[in-house]
Structure formats: C-alpha cells, structure tokens
Amino acid sequence: MIVGAGFAGYRTAKELSRKARGKADITLLNPTDYFLYLPLLPQVAAGILEPRRVTVSLSDTLPRVRLVLGEADGIDLDGRTVHYTDPEGARGTLAYDRLVLAAGSINKLLPIPGVAEHAHGFRGLPEALYLRDHVTRQVELAAAADDPETCAARCTFVVVGAGYTGTEVAAHGQLFTDAQVRRHPLRKGMRPRWILLDVAERVLPELDPQLSRTADRTLRERGVEVRMGTSVKEATSDGVLLTDGEFVPTRSLVWCVGVRPDPLAESLGLPMERGRLLVDPNLQVPGRPEVFACGDAAAVPDLDNPGQYTPMTAQHAWRQGRTAALNVAASLGAGVRRPYAHRDLGFVVDLGGVKAAANPLGVPLSGLAAGAVTRGYHLAAMPGNRVRVAADWLLDAVLPRQAVQLGLVRSWAVPLDTASPELAQAPGPRRRADARSGPGAATERETRPGEPAAGQEPEIVASAGEAVIAEAKARETADRKSPEREPVEWESPEWESPDRMSPEQSPEPARNEPASEPAKNQPGPEPAKNQPGPEPAKNQPGGEPGQGPGSVERTDADPAEGDS
Known about the structure:
It contains 14 helices and 26 strands. The chain is of the alpha/beta class. Among the domains are: about 1-30 and about 70-105 and about 260-330, FAD/NAD(P)-binding domain; about 125-255 and about 345-400, 3-Layer(bba) Sandwich (FAD/NAD(P)-binding domain). The strands form 8 sheets. It has a 6-stranded mixed beta sheet with strand order 5-2-1-9-22-21, covered by helices on one side. A 4-stranded parallel beta sheet has the order 13-12-11-17. A 3-stranded antiparallel beta sheet has the order 6-7-8, with no helix packed on it. The longest helix is centred in the first third of the chain and has 20 residues, at about 125-145. The two termini are about 30 Å apart.
C-alpha cells in the first residue's frame, strides 16, 4: 500500500511494480488520477504550458498498480489498515502488509493576520489555474479602470518567498503581464509591478551564491522589485503592510514561503522531527518494520552530514522513492536492503524566456546555455508528456500567448490553509490543515460566519440535484395551495466577478455550486432550504458566487518547518 503519488510515491510504485513483475498486489491511494510534475507549474500559471502537460496519468504509466482515488483520513497501525474518503464522499478501508507513507507536503502557514484569508498558495494545479485567471483578470480590469490608484493596485502583484517556487513565479509572472499590457495598455506611465519578498538575505538562499546572484540580476533587469529582509506584517483586501512599515496596495498576494509535511504523518503518534516522520537510513519506521516513509513526509538521515536530515525537495523525494521500493521488496525476500544515499548533480532554476540559472555537475551557467540545460533536464526528468511539453515550448516561442479567463477555479476553491492543495475545494465540510491562529487573528465565529462554532452540529448541505428536485416539489405544493397566485418574475443572476462587487452587492455564496471535485461526506437526500419567491434560488446554475463558503481559521506552523 502506497499513500500518495507525488515524486516519492510515484517512483516507489513504478520501481516496485517493475521489480515485483506481477507477484505482489500493489495499491496506490491518491486524491487524483495523475502525477503532477511540480517544477513546471509556474509555466502553467504563465500560460506557456497547458495544464494537462504537467500531469502524467497514473493508470497509463502504472499498469500493474491498482489505483484507488481518495484521501487517507487515518491509519490503524495495529490493524494494518488505511481509512480513506473517495472523491464522492464515500468512506473505505484498505488493508496492507507493507505500507509506504509518501503523503507529501502542504503550504507552510505563518501567524500573520489576514494571510489565510487574502493569500493563495502555489502547490497544486488548481492554484496555478486560479493564479493564471486572476492575473489575467486584474490586468484587464486595470486597463479599463479610470482611477489611477485602482489601476496601480490591480496591476501590483506581491510574491512572498524567494525560494525555487517564488522566484520562478515572479520571473514568469513579470513576462506574462508585460505581454498582456502590450495588447491591453495601461494608463500612461504605468506597467505591471511584481514584488518579491523574503526574510532571507538573498534570493534562493538554499542554493549556491553564484546561482543566487544570477537569479537576482535577471529579476532586477526584468523589472521585478526584489526586497530581501522584508516580509508581510499584515494582509488586507486592499493591500499588504510590510515589515518595513510600507503599505502596498494590491489585489494579489501569492504565498510561496515553503512547505510543511502533510498532517497525516503527525496523526500516527510516532516519533517526529519537525512534523516529519522519523525513519532510519533504510526508510523504515523504528519499531514498525512493516511501515516505510519517504519524501516530504519523512525525516531521512543525511549520511553525508551526520545529525542532519535531507531537505524537502523533489530531487530527494524522487530518489528516496526508488530506495523505498527496493527495501520493501527486500523485506519480502527479494533483494537486500540498502540505505538512502545521494549525490547532488546540480540545480536548475527556470527564469522564463531563454533565461535560467543552473550548475550541472558543479559548473555554473547562466543565460541561454542555462536555459537549454534547464529545459533539457525537465524533459529528461518527466515520466511522460515530453513531446507535448516540447511542442508547447515551440509554440510559445513563435506565437503570442492566449490571455483569457476560463473561470474554472474560484478564489474560495483554493484556500491557503487546505490540507489538500491538489484538489479544488467544494463548498461544505473540507479537510483543513490543523494549526493555530496567529496574533491579531479573528475568532473562529468571525472568520467562518457560514459554519458553526466549535461544539455545534455542522449544517447539512444538500447536493445541487437534490436541491433542484426539492425546490420543484415546493413550488408544486405552493401552486396547489394558492391557485390564484400571480406568476413570479425571476431575476437573471448577475454575471459579475467577485473582485468587482462591493460587500453590499455580493450575493450569498451558492452552497451547492458545482466544482471540480465533490465535497467530502456529502449527505443523503435532504430537502433544500430554498423556497420559491421573488429572489433567485440559491442552487440555480448561473451567476458566480460573490464570495466563497466563508473564510477559514488561519493555521500556523513552526517557521523552521519545511524547506522551500
């Protein structure tokens, strides 16, 4: 049983199925049916790659592995079972002889007022799709704005975190918005403004200083404001207050401060190291020889640096997946166990266009050469879709990008504090990252007006189909009781972006708005609360909700947790 199909889980399943050759039953539990190649996610947000290019089908590439769609809710170590919830809310249980925990990581949250409500992370495909639409919308609204201050706020984008993800998001984002304003000119003298913040002393603090200088120089030449030693003190709907006292008006806050392990690992009650499950060099959990862990969820001893643990990076997760597969097979009598050891082959950072920073085999490169090495590395590392990715790169080089809003992912569908960033959230109960609220945070009742406070029974939300049926029955009953009633004129829902509506204009969020993923624990048939009347029914398809199902309680993690 393998929990999670990220870099570690996918590699474990692939290597184990190849070594077993049909002699073992391998089950892979994952919320989605694809493996996501995270390093290319900034190119999806920038409109270079189509979303499916960075996804690899699990069923097609792992033919001898049984795929079970669902999220692990809990693990019974004594009973050797994994409890999960499938995409439609049904619960199930899977038994195992050997367990590989590769649940990955989620956004790292800090106790900063307003961040959980107004910022968005960058860990999953839904977040990339949302950011692409959001940036496009803000530039288009800025181009049409009459007020200079509104225009400036809409075309200002703040990225927090100058690690791999934040640096690449800012680099690609500046190119993307510059291309947009060439077709939608802003007011005279204005251009899109990207600000990259980090409390560290330099960009890419985890990499070689020469790579850091290359990335910093490229960003500044492109027009990105790089502010090291500065972060966000408070976030509001109108902008962000920085730690240096400056208030930056903006409608866009991208949170890339790093990651922390999935809370599933901590729920096991086993020895932990800053939220990561402690394992030995063979990736086995001490005292539980049938349980293995790898990737971001595991604290793997770094044999080259005694007393330390390997960082939470895709490179380590990919290599640990192979070691985990070999050691699982060895525990079943096929082969011998081996400890995890690694040797760095270099790093690559894509800075957009033909620019990149790389040091393959320790040789520092920049400019066009680094760009060629970076794209070659990604093509070689991807387990599929290489031709399609290369084709998109070629088309992007000769054709202008399509800057359109598809509106597939709404703001409330990608909350920062979700424990499942790979899924677009649906209205109703959802799995949230467990952490504390920060100083100055609102209370639970204030931040979640649409949900009951602790200790109260949760409100039952009917499905969209059930609501429509119940509403039709209610109208029929009302017609029988009032045969002489005048027909009701129904107003057409207003197709308005939430960002353009005032709080007084914002409609109540549709509780049962269809989303890309059904809500968990969907209740059975329950009469809808909507009754006929002069106001539009809440569950009718049509207008976009003015806001999400309610902001959520902020979560917190030790700032030392995770690694960007």
